[in-house]
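[job 4417] fold queue: 2 targets
>>> target A
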Amino acid sequence: MARTTNDRAQRTRECLIRAAAEVFDESGYAGAGITRILERAGVTAGAMYFHFKGKEDLAVAVMNAQQGVVEPRLTSHGLQRLVDITLVWARRLQTDPVLRAGVRLAVEQGSFGLQDATTYVNWRDSMRECLEGAAADGELRAGVDPRTVAEFVVGACTGIQLYSQLVSGRVDLPERTVAMWELLLPGVVAPDAYDAISLDLKRGEIG
């Protein structure tokens, strides 16, 4: 019985995050009303307040749900996994409301009084783990610091998606992500490992 209750509570939480993401994606933080989110989720206010304190808490949960959209789809490791993270992220950012809203809220959070770097730090740590694996496998050039590269990639992806959103509505985001790697890889990859890294856009369609 306890497991059934916990499963139901988890489904309710996920439903709320999904509904909130859809509304945040459509209307931004300021335009997203709790009533509209509850109607979209099909749950009561009591059910929401069991999981979240309010709209700000929901926004933080949506921001921090981004990795769950991307990483469970991947089976690669090391440097290829890092590349795949960005390719899947770029492709799904075109259509997935949780990812779209999470990115939008993370960028716009200052406008509604938040200063929460958690989502960026989580991406950095995940990417650093990929790079540390790459270093252990001999894929990185000598002297390349995994944390420095991870922080650069997080910042670069943030800027690329903003630029792509403005100039093409993110239609060209996957191609811009590949172009980023074409510029970055020669400086970080060991020469004998370069040809093994695939930048095929189809890798963004994993899962």
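>>> target B
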Amino acid sequence: MTRVLVVAPHPDDDVIGCGASMAKHASEGAEVTVAIVIGRERSLYDTERTDADFVDEIHTASAVLGVHRCVLLDEPSRDFQLTRKVHLDLVRLIRQVRPDVMYVPHRRDGDVEHRMVHQLAMEALWMATSAFFGETGEPVPAPRLVLGYEVWAALPEFQYAEDVSGFIDQKVEAMRAYKSQLRHAAWDEAVRALARYRGAVATGTSYAEVFEVLSLGASPSP
């Protein structure tokens, strides 16, 4: 069985960046785990929504995509720091999941916290494959594939494209589970449009998601 780990900076980033690929993995029998690093930041539109409402959005979206497990690290928004604690939390999860495929934000994404989570994920992956940090479990082999996905900044160059034509409706449905986010922008329409464009230019199919290849089976650099 293939094991997939998706590291998302914020709730819904996983859906935007690789939601259709997640659904495709799940349909093929893979076990998909999502780690959301930073908790939801409230906007002026969210005064009537409870913390439980936000968590329900996450779990509803995950269920639509066939996610096996969703882990909320609940780090603070805009006060987020690359501490030892958050590193070890993610190392522990990587060692539990033992992913064959891992998705993280691409290294030049447009949000500073996305770039910080990219750094966190790559450092934690190196740590998880090393002989150190025994308090988080035993070392694990490097994933066979580590991919960087796009959210706030489209990838200017990509090395991998996945045809997700049969899974775009699940991606859109998962995005619609984030009712709080749809108050800000029509993200459901946006994710469909981007996948349609990527399908046209990258795979010649109806819909696609594209990725930066960060690692191919070798231990990643910290």
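[job 4417] complete. Note on B: The beta strands are 3-8, 31-38, 69-75, 101-105, 145-149, 160-163, 208-215.
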